[in-house]
Design brief:
The chain has four helices and six strands. It is α+β, with helices and mostly antiparallel strands and about 190 residues long. Helix 2 packs antiparallel against helix 4.
Length: about 190
């Protein structure tokens, strides 16, 4: 028998094509993993921003605790941030305390809209989670318990949160809505 020395030592065109297909599939998998990683990092960053905004309002409410119900607009609740307009009507406390509530809410509203960081090329606000909204609700007026929530738009659908803040604002089925919240109880300092 006579052996062809060329066929035994080199790659055939079929082998080269199979190697290219395997390499291409591997590269597509790596690219998909990279995209998912970037998406998860962005979701994590938005959650950190939302938690920072919740803590900011918790601190503001604790500082001006004697008129805490003004922050929640009484039993009505209050929503500020992206796409929201609000009016504040508070008839308890001093004029200075009411002015502080108004200033705190204006600043929180501005921070929810991303005023904490701006794009230098066009001065656009970019410092908050996507479509961030903040809600302050009075859970229990007698015991002075309030819920502070920040809602924002996520990048991929998940299970819709039970918290109502931002409900219906991030898609028809609410699967893009994310929320974080804190429940605050204001202590009675008079005793």
């Amino acid at each position: 028998m006579h052996r062809n020395s060329l066929g035994a030592s080199g790659f055939t065109l079929i082998e080269v094509m199979i190697a290219m297909v395997i390499s291409l599939v591997s590269l597509v998998g790596i690219a998909g993993l990279s995209i998912k990683t970037v998406q998860q990092e962005s979701e994590s960053y938005q959650r950190v921003q939302a938690l920072t905004l919740v803590q900011d309002m918790v601190d503001r409410l604790n500082v001006n605790r004697r008129v805490a119900s003004c922050y929640a607009n009484g039993a009505a609740g209050l929503t500020v941030g992206t796409g929201e307009t609000y009016s504040l009507s508070c008839n308890i406390g001093t004029a200075a305390q009411n002015a502080q509530v108004a200033a705190d809410l204006r600043e929180w509203d501005s921070n929810l809209k991303g005023a904490g960081a701006q794009d230098r090329s066009d001065n656009r606000n970019v410092g908050a989670a996507i479509g961030a909204r903040g809600c302050i609700t009075e859970v229990d007026a007698t015991n002075k318990i309030y819920r502070i929530t920040v809602a924002w738009q996520g990048l991929a659908p998940t299970v819709a949160p039970k918290n109502a803040c931002g409900w219906g604002r991030y898609g028809a089925d609410d699967s893009l809505r994310r929320t974080v919240n804190a429940v605050v109880r204001i202590g009675d300092l008079s005793t």
